[in-house]
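Colleagues,

For the teaching module next term, I've prepared a clean inverse folding example: a structure given as tokens, and then the sequence designed for it. I'd like students to try predicting residues themselves before seeing the answer, so please don't circulate the second half yet.
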């Protein structure tokens, strides 16, 4: 009898343990209902401002690495009625990058607030904790299979219900992996998307049919996603999708080096203007003509600041003249002879000169300097035959070259006011008479060197 009692007690304990674990598992796996957004609670915070409502709430989603997420949003208000503006029916979703959760916890960033405060659109985003298992389609947040697409659309529908907004297709903006998320959402749910714009995407899902959604895709040049984005762009054009793609300018970090993945202020403005124009087109019931997007003069003025032809030539490692001119009248001419074929290095150099109001001709020199003598002669003739350029100071800047520079030496004798600088070039010591030669071991010092040449010569 005593043995049976012990046995039943043991079974009861084991069963209770399984029951507790089972209940916990069910509770942990179950996604919670979205909260009521009318009143402040420990999980919901609402701030009423004269021109908008700013709020946040926590939602238990039980996703990989994310038992709970924080959602932030802004809803623009009509100051007279204190109700959402008619324009607030259009909702923007900011797709966050990998590691963006801490920034979102601190609030919506200024370039996101532009959409609500300047354009009168509602906007939301959420925290997503993730790891670097970026090719795991069932766990990494950009893929439909990971479950985040559905959650994002649920948040949108909840905001529409809570604030009595009319349902409209979603507008998506994103950065880095958020750009990849934006493109994947466009492919998987095209009927739910109005337009999309992102910078820094790299992992895309192929387009398989025509999608009538205006798209702007950007990478900062030098970004690891450039090649994938160009491939995605060509895939979209095959399906007659209205898409624009470009490589855009980098920005300086606090250490005065160019950042080749993160967005610059210029790229943010390009995205903002693109979304603004497409919102205007929706109101006018017009979108694009035969794949050509109908965008404002402001957008195209920004777009044309990017030296698209020069970027394309550099990407193709062209041995022809690559010309780039500042928007303002040039104050100096540079002939840049690059023995390096590093595409990012060449683009950074040209951009640095572009910012200093310089007209620059670049030649990529794949072999010995004398082997490119014909192209050098053509470049020098182009400069000397142009009525504007011939009056400006000319700097010949050689980088990482080898061979003989007799041609340039002869040119310098004929034009003694012009200067030639060689950096990291492999010439015989006997050839360096009357030439300034330098060794530079970092991109930062290289850009500072160019800037100092410009400032010194422009004062003369």
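(Answer key — instructors only)
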């Amino acid at each position: 009898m005593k043995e049976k009692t012990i046995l039943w007690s043991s079974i009861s304990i084991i069963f209770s343990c399984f029951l507790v674990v089972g209940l916990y598992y069910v509770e942990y796996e179950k996604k919670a209902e979205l909260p009521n957004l009318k009143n402040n609670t420990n999980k919901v915070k609402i701030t009423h401002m004269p021109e908008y409502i700013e709020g946040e709430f926590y939602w238990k989603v039980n996703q990989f690495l994310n038992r709970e997420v924080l959602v932030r949003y802004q809803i623009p208000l009509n100051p007279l009625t204190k109700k959402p503006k008619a324009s607030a029916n259009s909702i923007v979703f900011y797709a966050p990058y990998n590691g963006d959760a801490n920034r979102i916890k601190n609030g919506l960033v200024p370039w996101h607030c532009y959409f609500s405060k300047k354009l009168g659109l509602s906007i939301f985003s959420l925290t997503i904790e993730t790891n670097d298992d970026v090719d795991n389609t069932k766990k990494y947040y950009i893929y439909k299979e990971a479950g985040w697409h559905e959650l994002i659309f649920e948040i949108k529908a909840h905001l529409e219900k809570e604030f009595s907004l009319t349902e409209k297709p979603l507008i998506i903006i994103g950065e880095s992996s958020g750009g990849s998320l934006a493109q994947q959402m466009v492919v998987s749910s095209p009927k739910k998307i109005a337009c999309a714009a992102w910078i820094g995407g790299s992992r895309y899902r192929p387009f398989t049919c025509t999608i009538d959604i205006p798209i702007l895709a950007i990478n900062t040049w030098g970004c690891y996603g450039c090649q994938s984005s160009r491939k995605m762009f060509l895939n979209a054009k095959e399906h007659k999708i209205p898409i624009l793609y470009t490589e855009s300018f980098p920005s300086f970090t606090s250490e005065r080096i160019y950042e080749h993945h993160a967005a610059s202020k210029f790229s943010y403005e390009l995205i903002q203007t693109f979304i603004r124009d497409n919102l205007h087109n929706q109101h006018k019931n017009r979108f694009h003509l035969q794949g050509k997007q109908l965008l404002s003069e402001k957008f195209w003025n920004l777009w044309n600041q990017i030296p698209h032809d020069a970027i394309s030539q550099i990407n193709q490692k062209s041995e022809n003249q690559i010309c780039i001119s500042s928007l303002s009248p040039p104050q100096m001419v540079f002939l840049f002879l690059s023995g390096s074929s590093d595409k990012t290095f060449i683009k950074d150099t040209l951009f640095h000169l572009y910012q200093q109001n310089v007209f620059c001709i670049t030649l990529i020199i794949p072999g010995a300097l004398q082997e490119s003598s014909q192209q050098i002669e053509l470049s020098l003739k182009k400069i000397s035959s142009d009525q504007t350029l011939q009056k400006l100071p000319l700097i010949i800047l050689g980088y990482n070259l080898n061979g003989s520079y007799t041609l340039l030496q002869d040119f310098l004798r004929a034009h003694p006011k012009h200067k030639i600088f060689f950096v990291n070039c492999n010439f015989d010591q006997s050839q360096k008479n009357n030439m300034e030669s330098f060794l530079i071991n970092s991109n930062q010092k290289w850009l500072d060197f160019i800037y100092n040449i410009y400032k010194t010569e422009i004062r003369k």
